[in-house]
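Forum > Structural Biology > Help requests

Title: Can anyone predict the 3D structure of Precorrin-3B synthase?

Hi all, first post here. I have the sequence for Precorrin-3B synthase but no way to get a structure on my laptop. I'd be grateful if someone could post the structure tokens.
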Amino acid sequence: MSAPILRGWCPGAYRPMASGDGLVVRIRPPLGELSSSQAIGLADLARRYGHGIIQMTNRANLQIRGVAESDHAKMLDRLVALDLVPHDSRLDAQNIILDPLRASPSNDVQAKIAVALSEALHDPEPISLPAKFGFVVDTGAARRLGHISGDIRIEAHRDTLLVRADGCRMGRPVHSVTEAVSNALMLTRWFLETGGVNAEGRGRMADLIASGAVPPEPLRGTLPPNPAADPPLPGPTQNGYCVAAAFGQLTSDDLHFLADCGAPWMRLTPWRMMFLPIVELPMGFPRASTLIADPLQPLLRVDACPGAPACPQASVETRALARKLAPSLRPQETLHISGCGKGCARSRPADVTLVGRNGRFDLVRHGTAKDIPDVCSIAPDTVPDFIYR
Ligand code: SF4
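Reply #1:
Sure, ran it for you. Structure tokens for Precorrin-3B synthase below:
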């Protein structure tokens, strides 16, 4: 198998990506929220037009796989009717992540910032940005999204809002939602005008800052953001309940169940979990559910991309092997199984990484799918011998 193809763009609802099992349609629900009726509508669309699977991404989006090209337009119409996808295709690519566990919703500053920013990014004309360029809105006393990818970060120092370029330690204090949005836009324009985007149309703020670029004085940071918090675990939280799904993959039945378990709406998270505000304990997961409420479940420490046959770049099956190996993981041990060297499911190092190549696996210890393997070309059925010998 040849080297993985770097596509440099992300699928959307209007611009799905072809995969081994049909189109991948990515949905970015407004404010990362689903009402019960939207969740049920989405679950039914996944069953009708896809494989009945809804994937949660690490950008707090959702993906439906396996959509036939001939069904795409019909499905898109339904997604627009559900208000899950904008009417204007040019607005489909905005990446704005909010803290999903923020308190609700009497004075939701984060939602106000996200709505105003979304409007400003296409008024009067959409600003053209690299596909992976994104904004993080994370203004709580503890930053929950500190480890989540984002190029411009709207955070807080105590109660003061900050706008921070990713890669800079300090953020610029601002004093209103309006000022936060206008500073974020100025920083975006500075990124574009300073050569942040390469000839292939790719670019990230942290790379620009690492190259030595310094934002102009009016945008330069002077205060550090609030301390970062650990990502939440499945189970009860201060104001609701988090439910995880193995590999971030919900079945249509799972989504029906979550829509019906008493929360007024649910929020997508970048941690392969749904957050259900107000709910104390959802009972009775459906049969064959992928849902996880136990924070000690070993599958929470396993990342595996769809692998073969879903992804054309994979020569190995990944998730069945992941389920087989998970119960044998040592306490705290992390496992990443990647269908190829691209490593889509995890960019951080794992204790054990298995990388598919020519129908066999390479083994990397304490690294990523892109690192030099410790052991090469292991037959799939002998993988446990190599990991645990
Ligand atoms: S890492 Fe997995 S999902 Fe990504 S391109 Fe390779 S096989 Fe496909």
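The longest strand covers residues 350-357. The pocket of iron/sulfur cluster is lined by residues 4, 305-307, 311, 313-314, 338-340, 342-344 (CB under 6 Å).
Shout if anything looks off.
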